[in-house]
Design a protein that fits this description.
single chain; alpha/beta; D-Maltodextrin-Binding Protein, domain 2; 11 helices; 43% helix
C-alpha cells in the first residue's frame, strides 16, 4: 500500500474508532429520560426522582422521569428495551416486570437479553396495612375478620405480578382465607385511606410515611427481620408464617448495546448518591436498604429470581387474571 494511502486509511480508522468514544465521553449533552413503569407517588417513582435530581445536578443536563405505566411495569420496560442504545433512555426498574411476570405471561422482551444491567441500587420490604376504621390490628385479626366476612374483603397492590400481589396471594393461601385482589398501576394508598379498598400491600417506601403519620394502620412487614425504620411493626414471619419474605428491589437498566463508558458513568454516579450522607438519611426514613451492585451481580440476581418466583407462583396457584 502506498504510504499516503496507508496514512489516510489509518486516519479514517482512527476517526471511526475515536468518534464514538468522544461522543461517549461527552455524554450527556442533552436531556436524559429515566423511564419508570409505575405512577407518580409509587415507591418506584419516588426513588427514581431522588436519583434523577442528583444525576441532573452532577451532569448539568436534565434527567427527566417519564412514567410509562401498565402491566406491572412491563410496558415501561418494553419501551426501554426497544429504545436506541445511546444512553438517552434509561430505566429505573422494579423487580416485578423482569423477574415475576415472565412466569405469568409471554412478554415482548427478554429481561436477560434486551436489557443491560447497570446496578441494583436499593431494596425494600412491603407493608400490609388497613383502613383505620377496619377492626383489625394484626394479621391474626385480619384472618379472623376475613373468615367472619367471607367474600367481603379486598386488597390493593401496585399491579398483577408485583411482589405485593405475590405476597398477598401467598398469604391468603397460607392463612386459608380469600380476599379479592384489586390491581392498580402504582401507589394504592388513597383508596385504602378512604375505605374504598379495606386492605393494601405496598412498598415500604410509599407506605411507611402514611403508616408513621397514622393515616394507615400497618399490621405486618414482609422482610424476615423487623425494619430498623419501623421497629414496632412485626414481620409477617413472626405472626405465624415462618420464612415468609417478599421484597422489592430497584435497578438502573439501559437498552442492550448501550456503550460501556456510559453505563459505567451512570453506575459511578449512582454509587455517589448512595454514599451521600443526606441521601442515606432520606432512604432510611422511607425504609430503603442500600445495595449498589455491579452489573454482573444484577444480571445474576435476575437469572436466579426468575425460577425462584416461578416456584412461588406455582405453589400459590397464582393466575394472571387475579
Amino acid at each position: 500500500m502506498h504510504p499516503i494511502v496507508r496514512s489516510v486509511a489509518a486516519f479514517v480508522f482512527a476517526f471511526c474508532v475515536a468518534s464514538p468514544l468522544a461522543a461517549q465521553t461527552n455524554w450527556p449533552d442533552k436531556p436524559v429520560k429515566l423511564v419508570v413503569g409505575f405512577t407518580a407517588g409509587s415507591a418506584t417513582d419516588v426513588t427514581a426522582r431522588m436519583f434523577a435530581q442528583k444525576f441532573t445536578e452532577a451532569w448539568g443536563q436534565a434527567v427527566v422521569v417519564e412514567n410509562v405505566t401498565g402491566n406491572s411495569g412491563a410496558i415501561g420496560v418494553d419501551r426501554v428495551a426497544k429504545a436506541a442504545p445511546d444512553g438517552y433512555t434509561l430505566m429505573w426498574s422494579g423487580n416485578a416486570a423482569i423477574t415475576i411476570l415472565p412466569s405469568l405471561q409471554t412478554l415482548p422482551f427478554d429481561p436477560l437479553k434486551d436489557l443491560a444491567p447497570i446496578s441494583t441500587s436499593l431494596s425494600m420490604p412491603s407493608i400490609f396495612f388497613v383502613n383505620n376504621d377496619l377492626p383489625v390490628k394484626s394479621l391474626a385479626d385480619l384472618i379472623a375478620h376475613a373468615k367472619a366476612n367471607p367474600g367481603k374483603l379486598s386488597y390493593g397492590t401496585p399491579g398483577v405480578g408485583t411482589p405485593q400481589h405475590i405476597a398477598g396471594e401467598l398469604f391468603c393461601r397460607l392463612a386459608g382465607i380469600k380476599m379479592e385482589h384489586i390491581p392498580y398501576r402504582g401507589a394504592n394508598m388513597a383508596d385504602v385511606m378512604s375505605g374504598v379498598v379495606p386492605v393494601g400491600i405496598q412498598n415500604a417506601g410509599a407506605a411507611m410515611p402514611l403508616v408513621r403519620d397514622g393515616r394507615l394502620r400497618g399490621i405486618g412487614i414482609t422482610s424476615l427481620k423487623r425494619s430498623a425504620n419501623a421497629p414496632d411493626l412485626p414481620t409477617v414471619a413472626e405472626q405465624g408464617f415462618p420464612g415468609f419474605e417478599a421484597t422489592s428491589w430497584f435497578a438502573l437498566m439501559a437498552p442492550t448495546g448501550t456503550p460501556k463508558p456510559i453505563l459505567d458513568k451512570v453506575r459511578a454516579e449512582s454509587l455517589k448518591v448512595l454514599a451521600d450522607p443526606e441521601m442515606k438519611k432520606k432512604f432510611a426514613n422511607i425504609g430503603l436498604d442500600l445495595v449498589g451492585s455491579t452489573p454482573e451481580e444484577t444480571r445474576a440476581a435476575i437469572a436466579a429470581d426468575i425460577p425462584k418466583w416461578a416456584k412461588v407462583i406455582k405453589e400459590a396457584g397464582i393466575q394472571p387474571s387475579k
